[in-house]
Design a protein that fits this description.
Blueprint (H helix, E strand, L loop, with lengths): L1 H48 L4 H4 L2 H28 L6 H34 L4 H4 L2 H27 L24 H33 L6 H25 L1 H9 L4 H30 L1 H11 L14
Helix pairs in contact: 1-3, 1-10, 1-11, 3-4, 3-6, 3-10, 4-6, 4-7, 4-8, 6-7, 7-8, 8-10, 9-10, 10-11
């Protein structure tokens, strides 16, 4: 009888612990989802703003900004989906997980490359003002965006080919034993080496291009024929691009930080730190571009605030920007 009571007590304790674990996961999922919903609304308002006036659709820097925000928003949605699936411990099949992870990697690759093109656009605007309108056209911008997506898609194709080398036929089931994330889909040392080499190449190249543009604009600013105000704004914009590149790099190393934390702390602290790192390194950086450009750019600001406030608190702008 005493053994039965002990067993029943242990069962009750185990059930209570499981219930508390589920409740904790749900609460942390809600905590992470609330800022994500807010940031999605901000990004959505900015994307709508950039398609609300012809001037935004016909100016290269706004077209590039739209491409950057679109990729960041898709990345945010996919990251939140994977986070929720991991929180509730839903196990996917390898094909479904592979599709989500590869799509997330595709959109994540777009950001640093778009920042490079945006930096080059500012460099041409300051250093070659008379040729800017002939070099930076809507057509050339569209070609640049197409090349960015094609290059990123080629990278995803290489990753898929490396992924197919894994002997899936030896598995009893295609259902994964772990929750879906990008680390789980690195199934071979070759894939791991390729991912690291590609990320290093992209970010080093982007850093070099943006830094070179900044140096070029700074040198041009010393010329008497250069507009000092335009040069100052361009330098500030290029510094902003460097900060954005740093944010993109943070999202890339997020999984490595989570893995290091997992090996260092207990499960309860790990769940809390994982949620904190996810919000700070994945979700927040994807929203900062919309906020910074929406508040910094005088052409966008009034329309952005008008749509952000759901057209309630601000009167509609009467004059289109020129």
């Amino acid at each position: 009888m005493r053994n039965q009571n002990t067993t029943q007590s242990q069962t009750n304790i185990t059930s209570e612990q499981q219930y508390l674990g589920v409740l904790e996961r749900v609460l942390f999922s809600i905590v992470a989802s609330l800022p994500c919903c807010v940031f999605l609304f901000i990004n959505g308002s900015m994307l709508f703003t950039l398609r609300s006036r012809p001037v935004f659709c016909e100016t290269s820097r706004y077209i590039l900004l739209y491409n950057l925000l679109f990729a960041d928003t898709v990345q945010m949605v996919l990251s939140q989906l994977l986070f929720i699936l991991a929180t509730v411990r839903v196990k996917l099949t390898y094909p479904v997980c592979g599709f989500l992870v590869m799509l997330a990697n595709l959109t994540n690759d777009i950001s640093p490359q778009t920042l490079v093109v945006m930096s080059l656009e500012r460099y041409v605007a300051v250093c070659y003002p008379l040729r800017h309108s002939t070099i930076i056209t809507v057509r050339n911008t569209s070609v640049a965006i197409t090349v960015i997506w094609a290059f990123s898609s080629l990278n995803i194709l290489v990753r898929v080919v490396l992924l197919l080398d894994f002997p899936f036929e030896d598995l009893q089931s295609l259902e994964m034993k772990q929750v879906c994330n990008s680390l789980v889909m690195v199934l071979s040392p070759v894939s791991d080496h390729y991912d690291k080499a590609y990320n290093i190449f992209v970010f080093v190249s982007a850093f070099a291009a943006i830094t070179s543009s900044y140096v070029g604009v700074t040198v041009a600013a010393r010329s008497a024929s250069t507009d000092k105000s335009s040069s100052s704004k361009a330098r500030n914009t290029l510094l902003l691009h460097l900060v954005q590149l740093g944010f993109s790099l943070l999202s890339t190393v997020h999984n490595l930080l989570v893995l290091a934390v997992f090996k260092s702390v207990n499960r309860v602290i790990f769940v809390r730190l994982q949620t904190f790192l996810y919000v700070c390194l994945i979700i927040l950086p994807k929203c900062l571009s919309a906020l910074i450009y929406g508040l910094r750019d005088q052409t966008i600001r009034l329309y952005f605030m008008y749509h952000l406030c759901c057209r309630l608190k601000l009167s509609k702008p009467k004059v289109d920007p020129k």
